[in-house]
Amino acid sequence: MMDPQMMMRMHGQMMGGGMMDNPMLKSFNTDGDGRVSPEEMRLGQQAKLEQFDLNGDGSLTLDEFEALHSAAIREMMVDKFQKLDNDGDGQVTSEEMAAPARKMDRMQKMRAQSGQKHSGAMVGGNNETGEENN
Ligand SMILES: [Ca+2]
Ligand SMILES: [Ca+2]
After folding, report:
1. How far does the centroid of ligand 1 lie from the alpha carbon of residue 49, in Å?
2. Global pTM?
C-alpha cells in the first residue's frame, strides 16, 4: 500500500514538466523538488486567494481576481522583457525588439534554402535511372 502523500507526489511528477514554465506555479513549489504537487498547488492557490482577497470575505470578486491575474501576468511580462533585453541594460532597444523577427526571417530563409536543395537533388538524381522495371 502506498500512502496518500506518496500517491500525490507521483501524480505531481506526472503533471510536471511544461507546467513549470509558469512563474506563478514555480512559486508554489515549496519543497524545492522542481515539481508542484497537487497539495502545493492547493496551498499556493489558497495563499493567492488570501493575498488578493482585499475585503477579507474569503472569496475573490472579478476585481480582486484581476489584481491576482495582473500580478501573475506581470511576472511573465518581466520574464519576456528580460529575454528581449539581450545586453541586460534594462532597456529594450528597437534593435533588440526586432531580434525575434530577424530570427524568424533567418529560419524561414534556412527552410527555403534546404527546400530548394532537396527538390534540386530529386530532379538531378532521378533522370539517370530510367530502367527501374524489375
Ligand atoms: Ca473578496
Ligand atoms: Ca538592452
Report:
1. 8
2. 0.48
Q: Distance (Å, rounded) from C-alpha 51 to C-alpha 47?
A: 6
> Residue 115 is placed in which grid cell?
527546400
Cell 524568424 appears where?
A: 104
Mean pLDDT by 10 residues, the chain (134 residues): 58 48 70 85 94 96 96 93 96 96 95 75 54 60
Closest-approaching ligand to the CA atom of 95: 2
Q: How many whole angstroms from 52 Cα to the centroid of ligand 1?
A: 8
Ligand 1 centroid to residue 22 C-alpha, Å: 25
- Half-sphere exposure of residue 19: CA atoms within 13 angstroms, side-chain side: 17
Residue 105 CA to ligand 2 center (angstroms) comes to 21
- Cα–Cα distances (Å) from 113 to 106, 107, 108, 110, 118, in that order, read 10, 10, 9, 5, 9
